[in-house]
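Technical annex, item 7. During the second reporting period the consortium partners agreed on a shared format for inverse folding records so that results from different sites could be compared directly. Each record opens with the tokenized structure and is followed by the designed sequence. A conforming record, contributed by the partner at site C, is shown below for reference.
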């Protein structure tokens, strides 16, 4: 049987984004226990156990939020008549009127694929860039397939530089660093006849100005510029097939936000669709 730990490793190796959810505190009569765990996928599906139906609904919504901003979150799920757990900085409180009782805290840790650095060229500079990028937890790809890459560094390909730049731009890469003098880099880009938008994505001379001389120092300046583009400018990986965020709805009985899926309790009344957190709210609504 595949454990949650096995599933976490499997998704990480496959570079699939997910949220690792772990119950850290629970009070009876909630069915969850500290240490219970699950993974939440970008489509809102949950594998594992972190509580009953009402808790799962809150976990789904909060987990998808963490996938968007990459920040961990302590989710506190409380019945509507208690606030037993003290306030904690960085925590989100969710009150569930349909909760069966007891309070629960769940730590949500988004796991996002490491940024990919495409590398073209076999010079001492490109070797130093690869070494430093791996130290910075980038995944280095030198295959020439730049789909999904966050940035591409072109260093010392000679006549192949233009082909590498064109391939990176066509793959949607938002940051292409060309190792060349200012004069040679400008001439090379002029020959490519880039659009203004494409030209803005190519950075040459590559790297921040730090007076770098050795291949290692040049690699430092290049990776510093790449990191700044990610952390300060919001550079993201080139687009790939992304899972659509599930539709959300508000349970008309308890007021919970639920993610709409094939198994979400549903009723159509007077031509209007309603979704519910659980079968109990569905029964209560349809009996009214």
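Designed sequence (site C submission):
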């Amino acid at each position: 049987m595949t454990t949650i730990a096995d599933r976490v490793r499997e998704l990480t190796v496959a570079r699939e984004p997910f949220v690792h959810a772990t119950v850290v505190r629970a009070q009876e009569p909630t069915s969850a226990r500290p240490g219970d765990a699950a993974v939440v996928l970008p489509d809102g599906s949950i594998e594992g156990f972190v509580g009953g139906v009402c808790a799962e609904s809150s976990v789904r919504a909060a987990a998808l939020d963490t996938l968007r901003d990459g920040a961990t979150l302590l989710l506190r799920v409380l019945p509507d008549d208690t606030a037993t757990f003290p306030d904690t900085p960085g925590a989100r409180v969710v009150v569930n009127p349909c909760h069966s009782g007891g309070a629960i805290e769940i730590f949500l840790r988004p796991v996002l694929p490491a940024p990919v650095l495409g590398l073209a060229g076999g010079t001492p500079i490109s070797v130093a860039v690869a070494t430093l990028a791996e130290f910075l937890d980038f995944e280095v790809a030198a295959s020439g397939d730049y789909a999904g890459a966050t940035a591409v560094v072109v260093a010392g390909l000679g006549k192949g530089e233009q082909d590498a730049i064109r391939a990176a731009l066509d793959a949607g890469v938002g940051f292409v660093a060309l190792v060349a003098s200012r004069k040679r880099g400008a001439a090379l880009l002029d020959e490519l006849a880039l659009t203004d938008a494409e030209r803005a994505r190519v950075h040459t001379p590559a790297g921040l100005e730090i007076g770098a001389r050795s291949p290692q120092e040049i690699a430092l300046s290049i990776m510093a510029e790449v990191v700044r583009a990610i952390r300060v400018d919001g550079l993201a990986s080139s687009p790939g097939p992304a899972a659509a965020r599930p539709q959300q709805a508000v349970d008309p009985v308890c007021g919970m936000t639920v993610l709409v899926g094939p198994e979400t309790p549903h009723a159509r009344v007077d031509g209007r669709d309603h979704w519910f957190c659980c079968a109990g709210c569905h029964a209560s609504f349809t009996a009214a």
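Residues 248-287 form one domain. The chain has a mean pLDDT of 87. All partners now use this format for quarterly exchanges.
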